């Protein structure tokens, strides 16, 4: 009850007219930058940081939280409508969301994203109130072997469930891991796969890769097949979710929340892993597997819920441990130190008014996001009625603009073209795109955790199976990889039984 009392006091602070105004400003700004590829929420918070020095710390962080949550939702809009992820955490949403939009269900995809974001964000913020300390304690206890096992689980879960061929899935994953290796070796400082180009020393930004493979690759594919496709207006579809849409979405919302919050709370977590695992989970559990790859609403509802729940989880890691789980929370950590505040276990004791007002603002920001964005879903859907030549010209324009804004380097535009051609080739030869993105995002992180684990054990591989959690994860991985062989063996054994012999004779 003490937590509820403090939360009520936080609402009293956050609902003052000025703080409510800053929350609304943050939500609108966050949604806007989420829509524009390349302009991430971390960049927005960093740009606004010098402008907020004159504000009270509580007001500044309420606005930052609004930007954080707004960006988590805003990136899904272009992912669904234009197949152009505004944030790396919305890459998974583009897979089924854009297919829904192309089939005239853009409004439903945007609606399930908005409602799922609201539900997951609200549940995640509620978990932040009651479970912040236990989750933080668990995050501290996990070591490098556990983090590495979780990332390997993400690799295999996605690669084994996407596409019609596991060989193509692992080929795509290999491409992503190779792209993730570009840059400096984190241990030795040696250049890897840079080909002597100085601009590649820092690696390739994940947003650049996502925009190139999804947006540019899609535009090239449409251009190459323009003579086959009818250049017609796409009907925006119904402006609201049907009863069947609700029935198919509510369980993915809850499952996405259950995956997103704990991963967001892990210092090495982030939103990418839970959105990937959520998509793989929904594809496994769906009663309509034939719709995946053609626009399944579960493939939008689950990852979007995981995305926003992980945002609440990352706030848990920041406030209770002082450890940022994402680029945006890293900038917010810098903002805390600028105000002379040290996030960590003592923050709730030393700055209770700030902490609980910030937590209360998460509930307020979620409500504002729903109120602002849900009525706009049919309006956004009408963007698809733009003729294809103009639509994809606009997509390429914003892709180039967003990519150049990352580092203001012409080399990024060259990489945009090269990776765009790669995205086109992957569509041509039916290679799934998501394993490539997973490899780029998680490859460097998995390498870092593996090296850290081996350093702690003096090179002994037994450290990778030194805990119960790692053993459980690797057992699950073995089952996933061996399941096709087990199923085939079971069928052959069943065919040798007397009833199986009888069936054969009848044929």
UniProtKB/TrEMBL annotation:
Where does the source fall among the domains of life?
A: Bacteria
Identify the InterPro entries for this entry. Answer: DUF112_TM
Q: Where are the transmembrane segments?
A: 33-55, 109-132, 144-162, 204-224, 318-342, 354-377, 389-407, 463-486
Q: Where is the DUF112 domain?
A: 20-437
Q: Which UniProt keywords apply?
A: Membrane, Transmembrane, Transmembrane helix
The name on file for this protein is: Tripartite tricarboxylate transporter permease
